[in-house]
Structure formats: structure tokens, C-alpha cells
Amino acid sequence: MSHTVVGVFDTSNEAQTALQQLVSSGFSRDNIDIAPNTNAGADEHDKKDDSIGNFFRNLFGSGDHSERYSNYARTGAIVTVHVRSAADAEKAADILDEHGAVNLDERATGQGTGAVAADRGRPETSATDTTIPVVEEEMQVGKQEVETGGVRLRSRIIERPIEEHLRLREEHVRVERNPVNRPATPGDMNAFKEGSVEMTEHAEEPVVRKEARVVEEINLGKDVEEHDENIKGTVRKTDVEVDRLDEDELRRRRTEGDRPGNV
């Protein structure tokens, strides 16, 4: 929805100053209208005067409100800003207020100034009631489980050289021949026959056996500890202070030319 912000000024110079400030604040010049145009001729001023009444009747509808704005605008100047958001409309209204936009409703009663912001296609709404939402934050504390560390066990096979000293025994058959010259005995005669005698050699050799033995057990487990912790934080809340405005304060504002806000 588009929004239209209208500022009525006592002089064209004030309107031109407000227009320049709007452009400096980022508003497109193509979306800003000013009437009457200080560079226009007399005939063009008459045409502007005729269109002013139609403009306010289209904006606010027929009635005293639109006629009051139309009559005053014919002697002053009007700045109209077309925007697409309520935030931009409020920003434009603030700029117009700061540079002397007239609030005709309050001017009729001798009070302040201000720009008019209206949504296109909607009638003007009353601004006599203002609502300030009171917002209060609440802090909710809960728990969640996160990983803080851990242990990984990895097993692998490693080899290491082992050296042992071992003494081995070997047998060797020895044959000795000794020449003799003696008479044969009966025993010699009993052995005097064909036959064979054998003697076997023996030797020791190393024998290696391996035996696997469990020498250690490693257990992987968890110990659970609990502790208390105080959670601190801040929450925000809207604090609304109500101050009564007395007649002296209002009279001082009128004297200083302060503008209290938008219509």
C-alpha cells in the first residue's frame, strides 16, 4: 500500500527548504510534489489553486476538514511526498515538521505545527488516541547436551627383535686305528667273524616356540559428574513514564515554537 504525506507551510521558502531536506535524506525528487511552484506564472498559480481543493477532497473526503486545509494551502505552500512504507511516511512527516509544516487543526486553536500522513485509498483516521505497546522479555533457561572431549583407543601390532644365548651340543664319531702285536686271546677269537658295528652321532639344535599371553586389560568407560551453575542474563521491558502537561508547559512550548508531533 502506498502512503501520502502532506505538509502545509506558511511560505514557499519553507516548503522549498523542506523539499531539499527530503531529497538530501534519500527521498526521490520524482515522488515529491510542491504547490504552488515558486517558478510558475500567474495562470499556473490559478490552476494550482483549483487543484488544491480537489486534492484535499480526494485525500480526506468532502467536509470541513478538507476545506480548512484547502483554504489555508491556497495562501501558503504544500509539499506532498509519496512513499511505499509506513516507516518512510513517518520519516517524511518528521522532516516536514522540523522545517515548519503547519498543523491546521491545532492552528485553529492556537497550537503547534505538523504534517499530515494518510494512506492512499483510505480515509483519514483519528489521532486523538495513542497506544504504546509495553513489551517485556522473559528469559527461559534449559539444557542441551554438547560434546566437550573424548578418548579414542587404537590397537596395532608392533614387532621387536629378541635375542637369546643358547649352548648346543654336537656328537662326532671318532675312528682310531692303533697298531698292536700281541697273541690273540680267546675273546679275540670269538670276535674273529664277520659283522658290523654302528655308532650314531647326535647334535642339539635350537627349537623356538611362541605363546601368546594377556599381560594387560584396558577398559573404556565414563564417569558422570554433576554440578550446579547459576545462569545470569538480562531481560528488557518497556517502561512508560506518564507526565502531566500543565498550562505553563504548553504555553512555554507555544512560545518557543516547539512542535509536539504529527497529526
From TrEMBL:
<feature type="domain" description="DUF2382">
    <location>
        <begin position="132"/>
        <end position="242"/>
    </location>
</feature>
<dbReference type="Pfam" id="PF09557">
    <property type="entry name" value="DUF2382"/>
</dbReference>
<dbReference type="InterPro" id="IPR019060">
    <property type="entry name" value="DUF2382"/>
</dbReference>
<protein>
    <recommendedName>
        <fullName>DUF2382 domain-containing protein</fullName>
    </recommendedName>
</protein>
<dbReference type="InterPro" id="IPR052967">
    <property type="entry name" value="Stress_Response_Assoc"/>
</dbReference>
<feature type="region of interest" description="Disordered">
    <location>
        <begin position="244"/>
        <end position="263"/>
    </location>
</feature>
